[in-house]
User: Fold these one by one.
Assistant:
Number 1:
Amino acid sequence: MRHTCLAVLLSCLATFVSALEIEDYRLFPGTGDRVLRVISTGDLEVFEPYLLAFQARQPSLSIDYTVVSSAQLYQAIRGGAVFDLALSSAMDLQFQLANDGFAQSHRSETTTSLPDWARWRDLIFAFTAEPAVVVLSTQRFEGLDLPTTRQELVTLLREYPDRFDGAVGTYDVRDSGLGYLFATQEARSTDAYWRLSEVMGRLNPQLYCCSGQMIDDVAEGRLAFAYNVLGSYAADRLARDSGGRVQILGMQDFTNVILRTAIVPTTARETAAAGALIDMLADLGQREAPGDWPLPPLGQTGTDNLVEFGPIRLGPALMVYLDPLNRRAFLTEWENAMEQR
Amino acid sequence: MTGTASIGRRLTLLLAGVAALLSVLSWWMVTGLARQAAERTQDNVLAASVTTIAETLRSEQGEVRLELPYSAFSMLGAISEDRVFYRVATGDTFLTGYDDLPVPTEQISSGGRVIFDTGVYSGEEVRMATVSRLVLAGTQPVSVKVTVAQTRGGVASISAELSQLAAFLSVAFFLVAVSLSAFAARTSLKPLNEIAAAVSRRGPSDLRPLRRAAPTELAPLMTSLNRLMDRLGQSIRSAEDFIAEAAHRIRTPLATVRAQAEIALRSAKDEDQKQRLRQMIRAVDESSRSAGQLLDHATVVYRSDDLVRTPITLSDLVRQTVAGLEPTAAMKDIRLQVEMMEGKVQVDPVLMDNALRNVLDNAIKYSPPETDVTIAVSAGDSEIRIAVSDQGAGLGDGPVDMLTQRFQRGTNTQGVVGSGLGLTIAKDVLVAHGGRLELETLEGNKGTCATLVLPSS
Ligand SMILES: Nc1ncnc2c1ncn2[C@@H]1O[C@H](COP(=O)(O)OP(=O)(O)OP(=O)(O)O)[C@@H](O)[C@H]1O
Ligand SMILES: [Mg+2]
């Protein structure tokens, strides 16, 4: 009897684990029995300070933190995986989850104090606003004027194809939900996107799933620049720590600003604790001074005044590019631009 | 006052009721209209959205292609925070969107007309707009059906908000209407209250007709009120006339009877017969006195209705009355002492003479022979007092107030002829002049003091 139980449990766990490609995981043990299960796209080192701060408030609560890709997170929640809180930078996928009824509502004084654009229906709450930036290697750009618009970047790439051949990095939008969001929003907002993609496609671009590796490659000089990286404080700090080898650049013609959002999945059990964590994050999102947190608040970012372009709107329009037909059409076009050998 | 509700309150309640009805009605109508407007707005946006999507339909290499335009959904996001679902299908083959969206199954003409429907999806009520368009796929035109659905939270919240606003306005309207109703009721009842006040301000015997401007609705009431008062006055006057006439008619034959009885008494020898004749004379005296007093009383009642005040010297008045009673006093060897004071009063001389005469008459009648009766006239700050004191036995033990009532006589009246109307007459006269009659037994039963008090005009 005992054995069969265990077997069932193990097989359940196995299917679950196999379904979910976990990138990182940590349990922050608390003094009590209750466990808050958080699924997130944010790296552990970025979120650790937040989780520790929250645990300081509720020491009895254990926090189980799982890091997955945004697509994985979306699949997991849609598939009914049991989590109390889902934090993601892919606001389109988060929105789709909320729209399709996979999120439950949470309402508190803090969430109602959030600006209108930072929440939707008491279901999604934004707690950071982060711009997409270009991370470049100063060494590789030596002697060149730093581009401030996409047009300037295109001109530069055309002028020095040798210098940049194989040294241009960006997201593989087929793998990265965030990359896809950046690409679609940019394609919608500026026609320079396709021109840039064409030019980059001719330079044997390196495609990445995640920003961390891209930044590392820039730091080590393998890449001249990485295009469309999430410019959080973490990237900022990295640039500062690199001793001038890495620099962060915002495009002045147009910049995407995404909102990192939280939802409470319908499967959540510790809804009160999840709500409390959302409140803490939303509170921090509304702080005036940047402070010592790894992620910027909603109101301002350290990277120039890029937020002036305004964040991508949380609304049903986000679902447009998630439509399979649209996605297929967009990816075809993107592949045509990026993969021309 | 018996318990039918006041007209004012009834009028106010009626008007307030009407106001309440109107308030509720207007609230209900505004709420309905607000909901309709919100629904129509949503329908319009849904229609725009679904048409924009349908317009992007095209065929590519025999296949139906579709590119959801960004604006199709962003316009839905702009009107409210509502969930959005969509579905695109050709005939039975599902192309994209939410396959299980309960789209209307009926055949839709491909004329580009938008069909609306309401259903439930994902646990919420949704409004759906469906349009159908023919697209050439290969050689065959196929009909593609596009549906966009949106939950109705925005509609509900807008109409709830407006309904709340309407409710607030309705309540405010109601409150204003109620206070206006109360005001209107009070204003329209004002003439009535004024008439009532005028009537109640009148003295008990003031039966003059009411002369004041009254609204047309109240004119009949005024007329009948005046007619009633007129009739009342007439009947009182005729009753008094009748009493006076009756007294007069009784007195004359009584005088004859008395004269005859005196003659008979003088010629009678038999002691027994004399005794009976004396009793007869006494009874006649009594009747005659009563008739006289009744006549006087009727005069007092009649004259005090509208008092004829004439300025008259106080001493003249007293002296005349005293002179009139001097013979009566002399018969009992009673001395009438007058302590005079100069001054003038505004009174009805006939009535005042009547009052003083009755009081003086009592003093003489209820005093033993060879005593003094003092008439003292004095003036205070606001009143003139004519005090008549005697040296009789006083007023007895009974309540003094009783003695001024009609036909009430004291216990000390054995053998004294009287009707019990004298003090009533005196009191009525004084009250008619705005004064009063004070009666007291002097200390140690050493006599009575009756004081006529008049306000000094
Ligand atoms: N000066 C007085 N001394 C004693 N008793 C008095 C005196 N004046 C009045 N009374 C008492 O008050 C009663 C009422 O007086 P009132 O003058 O009204 O009636 P009356 O004298 O009996 O009859 P009449 O109508 O003939 O005067 C008298 O019957 C008498 O008992
Ligand atoms: Mg008398």
Number 2:
Amino acid sequence: MSQNLVESGAEVSSDRRREREKLVEIRNLKTYYGESGLFGGRPVKAVDGVSFDIFNGETLGLVGESGCGKTTLGRTLLQLEDATGGEVRYDGTDITELSGDELYQWRRNAQMVFQDPDSSLNDRMTVGEIVREPLDVYEWGTPQECREHVKELLDIVGLRPEHYYRYPHQFSGGQRQRIGIARTLALEPDFMVLDEPVSALDVSVQAEIINLLEDLQEEFGLTYLFIAHDLSVVQHICDRVAVMYLGNIMEIGPTDELFNNPANPYTHSLLSAIPKPDPTATADRITLHGTPPNPRYPPNGCPFNTRCPARIRPPEYEQLDDEIWMGINTLRDVLLERQRADRSLRERIRERLGRQTRFASVDETYDDLFGHLNIPQDAASVLDEIVDYAADNDEDQALAVLTEEFGSVCEKESPEYSTVSETGRQSFCHRHSEEHARPSEVLDERY
Amino acid sequence: MSIETTTQDQRSNEKPLIDVRNLQTAFFTDKETIRAVDGISVNIDAGETVGIVGESGSGKSVTARSIMGLVEKPGQILKGSSARFHQLETVKAYASEFSDHTVEVSQLRDQHNPQDLLDRIQSDISPETFDRDNRSDITLTDILAAGYGDKLGITSERDCVFITGRSGNRPENITSGFIELTRLEGEMQRKMRGGRITMVFQDPLTSLNPVFTVGNQIKEALDLHRGLTGEEATREAVELLEAVGIPDAGRRVDEYPHQFSGGMRQRAVIAMALACEPELLICDEPTTALDVTIQAQILELLEEIQEERDIGIMFITHDMGVIAEVSDRVNVMYAGEVIEKADVISLFENPKHPYTRGLLQSIPGGQGGDRLQTIEGNVPTPNEPADYCRFAQRCPKAFDACDVVHPKHVEVSEQNDHTAACLLYPEEKSQAGAVSLHREKGKAGDGDRMRGEKQ
Ligand SMILES: Nc1ncnc2c1ncn2[C@@H]1O[C@H](COP(=O)(O)OP(=O)(O)OP(=O)(O)O)[C@@H](O)[C@H]1O
Ligand code: SF4
Ligand code: SF4
Ligand SMILES: [Mg+2]
């Protein structure tokens, strides 16, 4: 105990900090889907090399947009999904190496609560049977003991003993989520992955479940990985937060710091997008354009570079108008999109007939983006060159020129983690190195 | 003053774009009658966004569907409900195209005295039925729009265009009037829905047909509502997609809905809605299924569109953050009723109804660290007439009268038009005084509250 205090090297104010022993250590974890697929095609890189620790007794939040890999990461931590590479050390054991009986025994320690209380409960089983099932699977105690234990669990999560014989459809959403939680607690796990546990619930009901989860953690010393897209819930319940984008963790650190003083441009953008329940709040919003890229085709360099509002610009174009930059970004999106889009048969026929649909529409897009702008000579000639390639249906070359001329380190090299505060908060961005302006300065200037 | 006067007529040009009064929609199932929308009154001006917020099952979607004429069996809009669409151009167009279904209220006024008519109506009615304070305020228009004219032999069942003022005989001379949305059918309904009023749903795929390209679907709307076809329609479709921020629109117009991402689909639906140049846009949780960064894009888009085209927007959501951001005025719904309404700032800074207060306190964030406030229990299903407060079971402030007296909307602050339906108000009255005021309001007419008469 005292050992830990020394290690954390800080005066411990909160109870939770006191036990900063690592429960789970994740190193360079990757989970790809469809890698060995029949078509030998490109894999979907759902989790693309993440490293972080989960401390005993804490609640670590995992946030990010849909499809960024949150659920896959959660499932991989429990070996419900096979890791493609990397390690998950749980109390010292790398569970990605476990299989068969060892894995089966280990799983008792770690459980998952799902988002949708409606589909995760079997409607043909009574509440008692549902909560009991894991006990039966692990041959826990005598039938009598099991029944007692289940009733105890129902009590713990705020349900009544007579609910034992009812069916899930007789319950409201909040109560159904309680049933799911009771079931998860049955085998007395240490670690729980909560995947959007309150997203399907009404606000007033959601508050009760959040309070329940906090009580349970206190009582049983549980460690939570709390996956959510609702950042206000995360801000409330989590000790630390990891922000995920396209299979990568962009920033990870203590909740208050991260919310009040975000370091990574993506964290900045995500936080600024949340509508606040305060009509007088002046929305200094950074609206990201476009959508996250397809994880089958992540961009080179920084995963966020296609949408980043703080992207590093080459010095020779530093003075270029923001509107022109917006146009260049959109042009790049369009080219990337076209590069991937299957050309429909019809389109190919039309092309052969000499009605070059793509040609026409690149010109249109160009006019749309830049027609009303006054573009400096040097940039204009490069843009012309790009459009010429695109009109020839050579998106690859068009993109190569675009990246060469308007790209920067953000497109060329993957960033590394930088420590951005005294608490060890990490951010994944080139802008933390000396030669570039900090993200917040750039964002202030550009927005 | 019992006779509708010309001053009231002249006011009509300032009337809201849509004026919903005592809307009641019930579902008649074998087991029970669910009063999904139970007497709500909402109005929206052109260029204004009115929010409707409430928890699941509070009746938000049914409200929207009732206005759109999309209520299906076993659901029904009840008699006494009125939803008046005041847009003058539309009224003129309808009066000329559907003259058989047009009622000249201005001429009928000489023949009928509303007070006499009220005596002849057999149903339970009260001023509340017409969203009026006093019986003497009830006008002939109110009686006809709410559907009581049919039995009295003044209107026929399919009448739905009501002219309340004109300066000559021709349709162009109409100076005021409205279309009663709850009475629309067939062709008249089709022209309204998707033409003058359009709806954006939570799931864009409910509005998009998977087997047609996005472009074709927009072009169909353009053909139907604006008579555009061929090249011209294609050009307009591309322009609309561009207007809603879809890059490379010239190519995407030929793609199918499944080739679009979620946010892009919702943009396409909005483009389709705009294709008909609507006056009123009803958005039912349009961003709930989207990520926050995409939600921000869509909200920004709606704001731009509204500024450009001056349309009225009804915005439905359960998200208090979104409501705060988009609305000018807010209605909070609970179990089929609007329980508080106010301009957005008053509502958030000075909520009055115990439910609104509870709801705002249960939102995490802000108060940080502390335990979250909760509202015990769940939203009840409104399956009995509301002659009590439907929030009473969960209300921390409930007292005896709450179980037997139905709270009416009363002014709750100096701020104009901030009302709540709770027996604790008006604050300046004693509790007994307040309760008797609510009781009086309920009785002010001859009858009791409407008991769900089918139209
Ligand atoms: N087709 C139907 N048949 C029977 N009852 C219905 C039908 N449609 C809606 N209801 C009932 O009407 C009430 C109001 O439903 P509505 O869908 O308007 O709620 P809502 O506020 O939109 O909720 P949510 O936030 O979940 O979308 C509910 O009790 C619902 O069960
Ligand atoms: S590395 Fe570049 S693109 Fe990535 S977040 Fe930092 S500034 Fe943005
Ligand atoms: S009327 Fe009574 S029960 Fe209803 S909100 Fe007011 S105090 Fe609460
Ligand atoms: Mg709804």
